[in-house]
UniProtKB/TrEMBL annotation:
Catalytic activity, reaction form: ATP + protein L-histidine = ADP + protein N-phospho-L-histidine
Naturally occurring in which organism (per UniProt): Nesterenkonia rhizosphaerae
A GO molecular-function descriptor: kinase activity
Start and end residues of each Signal transduction histidine kinase subgroup 3 dimerisation and phosphoacceptor domain: 129-194
Protein name stated in the entry: histidine kinase
Enzyme Commission number(s) of this protein: 2.7.13.3
Regions that span the bilayer: 42-65, 72-93
Pfam families: HATPase_c, HisKA_3
Record-linked CDD domains: HATPase_UhpB-NarQ-NarX-like
Alphabetical keyword list: ATP-binding, Kinase, Membrane, Nucleotide-binding, Phosphoprotein, Transferase, Transmembrane, Transmembrane helix, Two-component regulatory system
Amino acid sequence: MTVLLLSVAALGGYTAMGYPSIGVGLPLAAALFSAAERDRHPWPISLAAALVFTLFFSVLAASFVHEADTNVFSMFVHSWAADIALMAAVIALGDSIRARRDLAQRSARLVEATAEHERSLAQRVAAEERTAIARELHDTLGHQNTVISMHAEVATAALPGEPKIAQSSLAVITSTSRGMMKQLRDTVHTLREHEIRQPSLDIKTLEKTVLAGSPLELDTDIRTGADLDHDVEATAYRIVQEALTNVAKHSHATRAFVQIRDEDNQVSIVVHDEGPLRHRPGTDSSRVGILGMKERAAALGGWLTAERQGDGFEVRAALPTHRSPQHRPTGERA
């Protein structure tokens, strides 16, 4: 804004000193573009609209004005029309670039917020599970330790004159000790499993995070049952997340359609935008994202396609409602 004001002042001084006219559009074009591209103010759109309206009015009035006329209105129509068009164009260009930059930043913040939510969710689940394990250890092992201690005292007292009572107490100590060891092994096994456990991702979490926080205007159609396999829901979450991220990164679209339906033992997913694309599909970033989505779908025995639809783009996938045995990781039980 400072450069723009200085440019206007310099142009006014130039004109006041009687130098030949150079118009106003070209001298102010760079400053107008920079101000519209840098700052988020309501004036760029308002000014551009006013200039376009003035240009339209001037062109309309030009048919009623002859070039031979020398009045002020005639000079305005024939001399300022090009300047008005140039100023409106650079303001609109600068504001559109700023808007696209803001959209990219909001998309990046959305991805970061989603990742942070997943991390906090995993930490909360781990904390709850640790609390439950601690409670079980206290209640179970504490009780068993008390039993051992009591029977040890009974056995000690009974050994001189009542060997049968001592033997019975020692048998209780032996069986209780074995129970404690089993409990400890189960606890250690559980802890080791949860060290590599992935965050819980499901359709409800998708609606609360990715869909609710998207910078795009979304039309959603989500109809799923309550008995979906966990891995299927997690894969659906990742596919929709990646597809919407690609829309924000690679398309000029401001709206998108998301459909997730569970019918006929199949979860169908559709993410569609009207475009137009920012650039030709198949760049490194978009190709890696599409490949990752296809691999996730194939890992469950499903499929995924990603292709242009008119000026827009559409991702379509189908996943089995429950993962088939041949697609379960080695060692995983059904």
